[in-house]
Prefoldin subunit 5 (Sphenostylis stenocarpa), 150 residues
Amino acid sequence: MGSWKSGSMGLERMSVDQLKAVKEQTDLEVNLLQDSLSNIRSATTRLEIASSALNDLSLRPPANQILVPLTASLYVPAALHDSTHVLIDVGTGYFIEKTMDEGKDYCERKINLLKSNFDQLVEIASKKKNVADEVGVILQAKLKQLASSS
């Protein structure tokens, strides 16, 4: 981030090439942050669906017939033998057995963590976007000044 972090005075002293490099870097950072925000949104949605499924599952009596999805459009009938325990996918192929309440708690804690991270990233992305926009304005002004002096 270097010397331009101190504000527009530092930016205005930079050459056109330096400004282009800063603009490119900040645009890249904004795009990466937006990708991260999208991933967090997607993970939060998956956890909210899982939490809803756990709530639904906890209301079903044992030995109740259910349909288990194998793919998005293929289901098989099954009997629910134990609705008090669930397996939680904690990532990288690892599963942990939890009680239904522990599973619900896990989902809620992860959702809250993701929402907190999302809010922090939104703030950072907004600041980076403002820097990118400021650099863009200064770069355009310098390019216009160079064109008119030639």
Remarks:
- The first helix runs from residue 8 to 12.
- Confidence is low (pLDDT under 50) at residues 1-6.
- The helical segments are 8-12, 16-58, 100-149.
